[in-house]
Amino acid sequence: MSKIPSPCIDVCKYRRAGPEGARHCIACSLTKPQKKAFKPVKAPAARAALVRLIARQQAAMGGFGHWRAAYLKRCAKKGVTPPV
Hints:
The chain has helices at about 30-40, 45-60, 65-80; strands spanning about 15, 25. By secondary structure, the chain is mostly helical. A two-stranded antiparallel sheet has the order 1-2.
């Protein structure tokens, strides 16, 4: 089985400021440190938890409606059940 893909959908434009002042990607809501932190995580449960965290972060920030469809498509392509 393939591993859970990163929540990044390859747009990577860091313009949105979050509540803590960090710049978030306009597509996936990840900050640069979050994006770096996801890559070395190998455990499926931990990867799923990080994706759910990002989904909650997006809901709190608003404006990321297109992400879910793009992420679900990426999961389907890899044959992975999406954690969100």
